[in-house]
Amino acid sequence: MTTLDCLPLIGANGLRIEILEHSDTTLVIRWVEPGRCHYGEQRWRRRSAHTSGTCAVSRRKIRRGDAVFKPAERPAPANASAMIAAEVLEHALAA
């Protein structure tokens, strides 16, 4: 896993995401969603989307089967339905 100095990403409605560590299959992020939830170090895993949805960073549509990162914590956290499109994340990490 690669440790970053924090790659900040901004989502909709004031959502702030900072990527703290990453590998091809795992992320450790800081998730701050004002008025809803805050996770200082949350593990996310790469998987295929089980349902359609919207990328938390780009607001692009995600279709069932697309490669995404999702929270991997148990019990399910408040942001359990959130997804980040793997393609969006790869682009951000390459920049």
Short summary of the structure?
It holds the Pfam family DUF3331. This protein has 95 residues and is mainly β.
Written description of the protein model:
With 95 residues, this protein is mainly beta. The protein has one domain (2-94). It has 1 helix and 8 strands; from the N terminus they run ββββββββα. The protein has one helix at 86-94, and strands at 2-10, 16-22, 26-33, 37-48, 53-54, 61-62, 67-71, 84-85. The strands form 2 sheets. A 6-stranded antiparallel sheet has the order 1-2-3-4-7-8, covered by helices on one side. It has a two-stranded antiparallel ribbon with strand order 5-6. The two termini are 18 Å apart. The model has no long low-confidence stretch (mean pLDDT 88). This is DUF3331 domain-containing protein. Pfam families: DUF3331.
Q: What keyword list fits this structure?
A:
DUF3331 domain-containing protein, six-stranded antiparallel β-sheet, 1 helix, mainly beta, 95 residues, DUF3331, two-stranded antiparallel sheet
Helices, strands, pairings?
Blueprint: E1 2-10, E2 16-22, E3 26-33, E4 37-48, E5 53-54, E6 61-62, E7 67-71, E8 84-85, H1 86-94
Antiparallel strand pairs: 1-2, 2-3, 3-4, 4-7, 5-6, 7-8
Measured by DSSP, the beta-strand proportion falls in over 45%
Helix/strand/pairing class, anyone?
mainly beta
Radius of gyration based on Cα positions: 12 Å
The tally of beta strands, per DSSP, is: 8
Total domains, how many? Answer: 1
- Count of helical regions: 1
| Helix content percent band | under 10%
Distance between the termini: 18 Å
Unreliable residue stretches: none
Order of strands side by side in the largest beta sheet?
A: 1-2-3-4-7-8
- Give me the strand/helix succession: EEEEEEEEH
Chain-averaged pLDDT: 88
**Describe the biggest sheet?**
6 strands, antiparallel
**What overall form do the CA principal axes indicate?**
globular
